[in-house]
Amino acid sequence: MNAKHKTVFVAFSSQKGGVGKSTFTTLVASTMHYRLGYNVAVFDADFPQHSLMKMKDRDLKMVMDNEALKKLAYKQFTTINKKAYSIMQHKADSVLDAAREFINASSVPVDVIFFDLPGTVNTPGILKALAGMHHIFTPITADRVVMESTLVFSQLLQNIIMKQGETSIESINLFWNQVDGRESTPLYNVYDNLIDELGLSLMRSRIKNSTRFRKESEVNSKTIFRSTLIPPDERLMKACQLDLFINEFLKIIKL
């Protein structure tokens, strides 16, 4: 491994469940690894559900059972000439050490490691794991409970962990998810102003609401959105503005 090559540690993290942490980890990791040419890996430390480990098993079975997806996967892997990215299960309290061991043992430079972390700060080792990230991305929705939980969580990271000095965190980035075009724009403006007043960073990209975020590939489907083996279909990405999000994401992490 090239000792000068910096591997970026990224977490989609929130204290509120169901806002899309694991989904965005999968979508961005798959886009970067399979379509954009980066080498990524994922550590699933979200005990006890370990949803990404389970998703990979389901994805593999789905591809093997679906002829269209099997052909798509075969064409993809022969074209990019590399394997699927690794998803490894680990506990939060030692996941940073495990990631560094993985980087040192890797035969190719690893550009980004994504961490799927538990959604509660009471989990042993979670604050240490968060402090070891370079960039944290937190999805938010226009829901009072989600916003209150997220703002408290983000302020904890920014005002306590980052100011203590013993941290790798370079940025904490909130972004709007599940944006419904029918919702009141002034509502978002109020929240935008509140986030700005608290000194938190808000991404310009807004992810439009789509049922695709809650669906995995189906038996007869010919297109992919959320998968650990194949990147999301480009038309589906544009429909929910995920393409714009990933462009901004790459600028933030400087890749």
From TrEMBL:
Query: This chain belongs to which protein, by name?
Result: ParA family protein
The record, for InterPro entries, names: DNA_Partitioning_ATPase, P-loop_NTPase, YlxH/NBP35
Gene Ontology MF terms: ATP binding
Alphabetically ordered keywords of this record: ATP-binding, Nucleotide-binding
Q: Does the keyword ATP-binding apply?
A: yes
> Would you say which domain of life the source belongs to?
Bacteria
The organism encoding this protein is Paenimyroides viscosum
User: Which PANTHER family does the record associate with it?
Assistant: P-LOOP CONTAINING NUCLEOSIDE TRIPHOSPHATE HYDROLASE, PARA FAMILY PROTEIN CT_582
On whether rRNA processing is a keyword of this UniProt record, the answer is no
